[in-house]
Each structure stands twice: as structure tokens, then as C-alpha cells.
Amino acid sequence: MFFEESKRFIRIMAASVIFAAGATMSFAAEKPVAPEHNPPGDIPDTQVFITYSSPLGFAIKVPEGWSRGEEPNTARFSDKYNTIEIGVSPADSAPTVESVNANQVPELVKTGHAVKVVKVKQAKLKAGSAILIAYTPNSAPNPVTNKQIRLEHDR
Question: What is this structure's pTM?
Fold first, then answer.
């Protein structure tokens, strides 16, 4: 999702599964793997959320106990197979569904693992207007088993 905040845009990417990075492979001929069918999880009623206040000027509530990684323009929170990544970058204008379809979507498809874009739509949130990109890629191959799984991403 992309949020407008006075000529700065916050990009939030939530991924359902992550693997260790480092594997390289050609993406051109990669085929989507069959998705696994697992029962949906549940956030316990006792889950505590804490507020992370970024030096970049945004705040987000994240589950207590998730690991945090920070880079100059990015914060990443993860636990087991779930990841939330928030990035801030300058832009000349607010993104639109058309600009996302013309710019970000082709880049996702070109650089990802068998990416299939499910939807690109405008979303109204408390923080303001956002563009949602929902897509499914294959994971990077597991370095031990070489197995890939199908991921679900909301950006």
C-alpha cells in the first residue's frame, strides 16, 4: 500500500511467508507452485500490540515479541512466516491505480518469482488514501530442500 504524506510516500508490504535470502536463479521460466491449503491462523485474544514510532515520522502498532530490523528508510517486523515491511521514499506525485499498474506492477512481475497480480485498487484508510497491490509469488527456494511455496503479499 502507498500512503500520501506531503510529498513522501510510505510503502507497506505484508508478506505471509519469508525464507532466508541469498539464492539466485533465473525467473523467466519459473512456473507458479501449487498453493498449500492450511487452516487460517488466529491471533490470540491475549496478543499485546506495541507502538513503534519511526524517526521517519510514522507510527504503527505491531505484535509484541516480533523481531525488528531497521535501515535508513525502512523498518521490518517479522515472526515465523509473517513479515511487515514499511519503507518511506520521496515521490513527485501521489500514486494512482494507473501509475501503479504502469510502473510498480511490471517491475514486480519482472523481478519476482512467478508473480501473479491479483488486484490493484484504491483503498480508503484512516490515515488517508492508499493504493493496494495484492499479488502471489513463489518463495525463494529453500537453501536446504530447494522447495518453494506460494506466498500471498499485500503491498
Answer: 0.70
